[in-house]
Design goal:
This protein is of the alpha/beta class. The protein is built from nine helices and twelve strands. The two termini are 15 Å apart. It holds the Pfam family ROK.
Length: 308
């Protein structure tokens, strides 16, 4: 049996697991990426995590096959090019931190690995042509063609959250463009629109607003929440319909915390996608929710190890 250490590094926390090749999670935990409570360099935190996991595996006579790491960045041949939310993620420091373990290290974009987890162990197991989207602070995605993870030339493509769904007058995106799917259909965009609607209508703005809060207000039929969610569904569906028209996948998988709000969420997306999409391109396509939740990134990172 093969075993892998898998890390899903985010802007606020690192989820890490010990996984066998069957996809069984044998140990899992998380640590803050960096905070007042954890001020040490990110590379030191990663080194500490890997040491803890290798010691755990060694105590059970489990041989570690490799280390898989997901990062919120474009990754070219294992090199992290930029990570806007993790400026302290330095390739040289990471290499030095992991050198003592003498294990192969495989790194890829976190959304790619979430999608890979769903393909190997989750909602798309056994299928060959998949579009995966994760909806959160931003929108990430992964694309599988003919059973293989596709990232464009030197893995610099498939930035599905930056599909342009509106013209030059669309919302400004963090990538520098306007009208991106992420700028109109992410949870950040949903929150921004909800605040605008409350302010426009002279309503009190709560001190804390997140996707869960807006969903609760939507279910209570609050006018501003309904309008914001309808805009969210429409924009996300435009992106999904465009991706179906281009790739004609067997399945589109939607993940991210807000996607777990209830059946109404995926049902609204399906209903609107079928209005926008070409019948011929979508003939064999189904649209489903992700199944692995926040475990997808680590399971995908483990799959990255086992597939090499």
């Amino acid at each position: 049996m093969k075993y892998a250490i898998a890390l899903d590094i985010g802007g606020t926390s690192i989820k890490y697991t010990l996984v066998n090749q069957n996809g069984d999670i044998l140990y899992e935990s998380s640590e803050t990426t960096q905070s007042k409570e954890n001020p040490r360099p990110l590379s030191d935190t990663i080194k500490s995590i890997v040491r803890k996991m290798t010691d755990y595996a060694r105590s059970r006579d489990w041989g570690i096959y490799g280390i898989g790491i997901g990062v919120p960045s474009v990754v070219d041949k294992g090199v992290v090019l930029f990570a806007n939310n993790l400026p302290e993620l330095d390739n040289q420091q990471l290499d030095l931190a992991l050198a003592e373990f003498n294990l192969p290290v495989f790194i890829d974009n976190d959304a790619n690995l979430m999608g890979l987890g769903e393909v190997i162990y989750g909602a798309a197991k056994g299928l060959s042509d998949i579009v995966f989207l994760t909806v959160g602070t931003g929108i990430g995605g992964a694309l599988f063609l003919n059973g293989r993870l596709y990232g464009g030339y030197r893995n610099r493509g498939t930035e599905l959250g930056h599909l342009i769904i509106h013209g030059l007058n669309g919302n400004q995106c963090t990538c520098g463009a306007s009208g991106c799917l992420e700028a109109h259909a992410s949870v950040s965009a949903l929150i921004a629109l909800y605040r605008q609607l409350l302010e426009k209508n002279g309503r009190e703005i709560p001190s804390r607003i997140d996707g869960k809060y807006i969903v609760e207000r939507y279910k209570a039929q609050e006018k501003e929440a309904v309008l914001a969610m309808e805009d969210h569904f429409r924009n996300l569906s435009l992106g999904v319909a465009s991706l179906i028209n281009i790739f004609a996948p067997q399945k589109v998988i939607i993940g991210g915390g807000i996607s777990e709000s209830g059946d109404f969420y995926i049902n609204n997306i399906r209903e609107q996608v079928w209005k926008f999409v070409m019948k011929e391109t979508s003939y064999f396509t189904t649209i489903e929710l992700a199944r692995l939740g926040n475990k997808a990134g680590c399971l995908g990172a483990a799959a990255l190890v086992f597939n090499h």
